[in-house]
Amino acid sequence: MSTNVGQVIRCKAAVAWEAGKPLVIEEVEVAPPEKMEVRIKILFTSLCHTDVYFWEAKGQNPVFPRILGHEAGGIVESVGEGVTELQPGDHVLPVFTGECRDCAHCKSEESNMCDLLRINTDRGVMIHDQKSRFSINGKPIFHFVGTSTFSEYTVVHVGCLAKINPLAPLDKVCVLSCGISTGLGATLNVAKPKKGSSVAIFGLGAVGLAAAEGARIAGASRIIGVDLNANRFELAKKFGVTECVNPKDYTKPVQEVIAEMTNGGVDRSVECTGHIDAMISAFECVHDGWGVAVLVGVPHKDAVFKTNPVNLLNERTLKGTFFGNYKPRSDLPSVVEKYMNKELEVEKFITHQVPFSEINKAFDLMLKGEGLRCIIRMGA
Hints:
Elements: E1 9-15, E2 24-30, E3 37-46, H1 49-56, E4 71-79, E5 91-94, H2 104-107, E6 134-136, E7 139-141, E8 153-157, E9 161-163, H3 170-173, H4 179-191, E10 198-202, H5 206-218, E11 222-226, H6 233-236, E12 243-245, H7 254-261, E13 268-271, H8 276-284, E14 292-295, H9 310-313, E15 317-320, H10 328-340, E16 350-355, H11 359-367, E17 373-377
Parallel strand pairs: 10-11, 10-13, 11-12, 13-14, 14-15, 16-17
Antiparallel strand pairs: 1-2, 2-6, 3-4, 3-8, 3-17, 4-5, 5-9, 6-7
């Protein structure tokens, strides 16, 4: 497929030189893959809120210059030493976390939190030699969560690549490599609502709507969307949401409102905002005896979860999830098949498309809160 095997590739990448400043399309050098690494050609990438969060770098260690991006689809260009399960031409989804298949987590059926490859937002280099594969005129450019998909070519650890059905359209299924799978899996794998049950979804962004989609697939009869932005309510109905609640419309806590609406509480809730008040509400709004609340959103590092222990003693369950409890290599291919079998609808998550040269437009849309996912077409 490539005449560049073992050679440095020069290509375009969108470089974040400093926090909050527009990305700049630069020519970068991408080194060949080292041991257990794969170099891939990115065809489509999409913007996730996590990219914006670390680009703004308000609450994190600023790591710059950096190539952001982690939701994408691409094709293997070449593989490094020790890589046996992928070969040039394979279609892959890079993932911000990984599956080494050797650690205790990977060997456990209950965990997807790989010791070697779980997300590390501060690391800007490859694990193998602690060096970057990106450079401009010999100056290293840092990686982001092991993926750096805002580049026409990138180098990724083999454990962070899901090999998928080559017939799956990469401009659609690329969104499954992060946010959509996170929300979907939080419902299907962790909350596990029964057919005919009630589910509350806190936060109706892309992840929350994916959680609602999971509830729809599971056959929930009532899916209650909770959001402070009423402009999101109409769109939410396309994802199976049956009724919407804006906490600002009530003087009492939203968990009390939901308990009244549902004769004591919902069977399941999924929290997708990361705001601590929403997390507490999501837990306290589930029914005693059998209610399960699942936390998905990432809170502020100093946030503290406070609730009366009686809420737990009354047989409510509180759970957390990471990437929807999917193991990237083992499980993501089956999520793609859900789309191919028309069980999962992905198109409705994609509200905008821009060429790579206009990648900053995607940031503008997300900062304005417009749309769900913006697909960025590489090489355009």
